[in-house]
Structures are given as C-alpha cells and as structure tokens.
Write a structure and sequence with these properties.
164 residues; alpha+beta; ten-stranded mixed beta sheet; 28% helix; globular
Length: 164
C-alpha cells in the first residue's frame, strides 16, 4: 500500500510507504524524538511503524498503536509523531493524516468498523487539528475517529500498491 504524503505549502503529493519500526532505524536516523520509541519497539503489544517517502530512507513520521479487542474493538493510537522538519505550520509535510489513515485501515481490516482512538495531549490547537481530520473529543485525553472519518482519511491518503 502506498501513501499520499502532501506538502503543506504547495500541496504537491509524494508517494510514501510504511514499514515496521526497528531498533536499527533509531540508530540510523538520529532524530530527537519526543516519545520513547525504543519502548514501543520492544513491547510485543505495540505496533510501531515509520513513514518514508519512496526512494528516501529519512523517517518522516512514526506511529505506534495497539489493538483493543474488548468485545467491540478498536485501534488505540499510543503515539504519533512527525519528524522535526515536518512539525508545526512551518513544517514541510502533512504526516499525521497519512499515519492515521493506516490505523483506520487496520481497524477496518480487523473488523473494528474503522474505529480509532487517539491518545492526545490536552492542547487546544492539537484538538482542533484532529477535529479537522474528523476526530471527536471524548474526554480523558482521547479523541475518536468513527467509520465515516476513517473512510475519509483512507480515501485521501492511501493508495493500493506495494508495502505494508
């Protein structure tokens, strides 16, 4: 599967691909990440992935999630982080929507109807950002993408093809 990675400034689209994040990736790409990605890699309950532009080994962003199968089921996004050069309004690429689109697809694939829960920092700008992607704040530092929002992200950011 290929991803559409969109430039924030000119809307140019780059083909992206997602791969499982490995310990070696953190050594090769010595970026100052906010979250402890080593912990995510080592815990077998978590599924950490890296987003790359096709033909470029520089990590553009990371996501880690786990499957919560509590009878209804959903994907729980523990961490989502853009590389420093993609952060904020002056960053280069829109990374979060592409990473969330993968979590949404995974939710549909697992029979969870596209439901994705995102653990967030309580930040008004961040909440508005996720609301613009279709998420709804449900309290307790959680936002949820439902079937409709998930389908929308998948249509915008995922393409059929090689990859995960």
């Amino acid at each position: 599967m290929k991803f559409n990675i969109i430039n924030k400034h000119n809307n140019e689209i780059y083909p992206g691909v997602l791969h499982r994040l490995l310990l070696n990736d953190l050594a090769i790409n010595p970026i100052r990440w906010t979250f402890d990605w080593k912990k995510e890699i080592l815990d077998p309950h978590y599924q950490p992935y890296k987003l790359l532009i096709v033909g470029d080994n520089h990590i553009q962003g990371l996501i880690s999630f786990e499957e919560i199968d509590d009878g209804e089921g959903y994907i729980f996004v523990r961490y989502l982080e853009s590389a420093p050069h993609n952060r904020g309004p002056n960053g280069e690429l829109r990374i979060a929507p592409a990473l969330l689109a993968y979590a949404c697809k995974k939710s549909f694939d697992k029979g969870y109807d596209g439901y994705v829960c995102i653990h967030i920092k309580l930040d008004k700008k961040l909440i508005r950002y996720y609301e613009n992607l279709g998420a709804k704040y449900i309290g307790n530092q959680r936002m949820i993408l439902d079937s409709f929002a998930s389908n929308h992200l998948i249509k915008l950011y995922l393409n059929k093809g090689e990859g995960v």
